[in-house]
Design brief:
167 residues; OB fold (Dihydrolipoamide Acetyltransferase, E2P); 1 helix; 10% helix; globular
């Protein structure tokens, strides 16, 4: 069973993934098993049915780092298997210092909640992005300081566009 280490901020979780066929997987995270039916809806959108509950996940990927938007919550996650974890450990330490927040989907910036120089904790909201008639808070992936803010309220952004930098 392939094993992956999921990293969000300083929190790590072990995930084991077993394909069951036709886009269905058994996923064990920290020993808790769930059944996941995964379908790609668009280039950067997946639909997951997890134990009967449906989730739409917007994602972008840069190397081993994924930016996810799930139910209005923004996540920055690194997923790597145990064999390559050692190779990425040095890179992960470097990446932990400076995190670029990208737009997970096209939309309009409704509100900017921080200014350059603001101290933030991992999970603090940085801005609100309206997409598909939903307002989504994009949050800081790490503790740090907002060093760059590339957008303002009312601005239209494309998927993958750089919004802010926290280090």
């Amino acid at each position: 069973m392939p094993q992956y280490i999921l990293t969000r901020g300083h929190e790590e979780r072990l995930a084991e993934v077993s394909p069951l066929g036709d886009g269905v997987f058994e996923v064990q995270i920290d020993g808790r098993a769930v059944t996941v039916d995964a379908r790609i809806v668009e280039q950067s959108v997946c639909s997951f049915v997890v134990d009967g509950s449906c989730y739409e996940v917007h994602f972008s990927r840069e190397h081993e780092l994924y930016t996810l938007l799930i139910g209005g919550e923004h996540y920055a996650v690194a997923a790597r298997n145990r064999r390559v974890r050692a190779a990425f450990s040095t890179a992960a330490r470097v990446l932990a210092g400076r995190q670029v927040v990208h737009a997970p989907m096209p939309g309009r910036v409704v509100r900017v909640l921080v200014e350059p120089g603001a101290a933030v904790k991992a999970g603090d909201p940085l801005l609100v992005l309206e997409a598909m008639k939903m307002e989504n808070q994009l949050r800081s992936p790490v503790d740090g300081t907002v060093v760059e803010l590339e957008v303002e309220a009312g601005q239209i952004v494309a998927t993958g566009e750089k919004l802010a930098v926290v280090e």
